[in-house]
Every structure is written in C-alpha cells, then in structure tokens.
Design a protein that fits this description.
The structure is a homodimer.
Chain A (H helix, E strand, L loop, with lengths): L11 E5 L4 E3 L7 E7 L2 E5 L2 E6 L4 E2 L1 H6 L6 E4 L3 E7 H10 L1 H24 L4
Antiparallel strand pairs in A: 1-8, 2-7, 3-6, 3-8, 4-5, 4-7
C-alpha cells in the first residue's frame, strides 16, 4: 500500500471518530487527505464507491479540479488523517515528481477499478 | 478542451486511419498519447468506456502504473496523435508541474464521469 508519510514538510494531522463525516458532496474543497490509520468510506448519492485504507489518498479530485466535492467521505473506523491544502498540494507537485506520480497512480488505480465495475456489472 | 500542444520538446507524431487499433488490452505499454486531431474510442471487454476528443489524453494509465493495457484504443475517425514514451513522460513530470497537474485533471475528470455512470445506472 502506498503511503504519503515521510513528506519533508508534514501537513496538518487530524483525528476523526468512526461515523463522522469528513466532507460532503457539494462542499467547497479545502484539503485533500492521506489516511495514516483507519479506513474512510467514499460515497456518491448514498452509494459507496470506495473504501480508502491506510496509505491511501482521497479528496484530491476536488482540489485538482477546483470543483465542489462530488462525493461524501465518512470515517469508517476511527481514522488519523494528514490534511494537505491546495497551496501545499501545488508545492508538493512542484517539489516532488515522485509525489505527482503517486497521485496519478492513485487516480489511475481508481479508474481501473471503476472500469472493472462498469464492465462486470450486468446491463440493465 | 485541454491540449498538450506546445510542449517544449514535441514527441513523435502519428497518423492513424479510422477503424485502426492503436493498442489492445493486454499489450505492454509503450506510449501514452495526446489527440491532436480526430477522436479515439476506448473500450474494455468490447464496451466503449470513453471517446477521447482532440486535446484529450489516453493510454497514460498503463504507463503510470507500468501495467499491461486494461483497455483497447481504436481510431474512431482519422486521427493525429502525439506519442510520448515512458522516459519522456517522466521527464515532462519533472520539468513541468503544469503538465503533471493536467494529467491529474484528465484522470480526475474520468473518475468523476465514471462515478456518474456508476451511480446513475439502474441497479440490476
């Protein structure tokens, strides 16, 4: 599992209790998050689309696109998160091609898994 | 529509006739492509998952993940493509945070559209 620990400049750490909402669809994006401990459930229109484990990244889409949140993120267990704001995200991309590539890999993994779901789902 | 023209170091240009296959699922990745003219159809297991217009990017997932192709790409019309190999892709990420962010936006747009398809599709 890829982890984002060990960045030169650690960002804001947050602890969220199981069941608490981290952000809601429609919110203005403020941070993207890496999961340090625990699991986060991502849902769209009440349907769970992803469970993000420790080492995973979420909330980056709204920050990348500067768009309101398309999904809701809820702590599935007690979680510890690293919150990275937009200026820090841009700084990380400039400073670290490896970080940029990791974000791309997270997104690319997600597309691949969604492709599988879309193509395996029986047509209706 | 985002375009990848105007990179400092233009990559290999290719012309592909309508109906010709650019790559097949299971192929080892060699290039990612930006569409300069025309449209490319991306399919998984015979199901079209995306049509990439001029200015769009495709084939980046296998290059980012260093994984065999998950999808098949066919020229929907006559197309002109810019082919970027893996070393050049890594160089572009290092040289240009703006390029890295564009790739992330393409991936992020794709996830957002797939989310919409997954959640709007009637359950069966």
């Amino acid at each position: 599992m890829r982890t984002f620990r060990g960045l030169d400049n650690p960002s804001e750490a947050r602890v969220v209790s199981a069941g608490r909402t981290i952000f809601r669809a429609g919110d203005r994006p403020d941070f993207l998050y890496t999961v340090l401990e625990g699991e986060v459930e991502i849902s769209v229109d009440g349907q769970v689309v992803e469970v993000v484990p420790a080492g995973g990244l979420f909330g980056e889409m709204a920050v990348i696109e500067d768009h309101v949140r398309a999904a809701t993120a809820v702590a599935k267990t007690d979680v510890r998160l690293d919150a990275i704001d937009q200026p820090r995200f841009m700084e990380l991309i400039r400073e670290s091609p490896a970080f940029a590539l990791r974000v791309m890999r997270v997104l690319s993994d997600r597309v691949r898994r969604m492709d599988e779901r879309l193509t395996q789902k029986p047509r209706s």
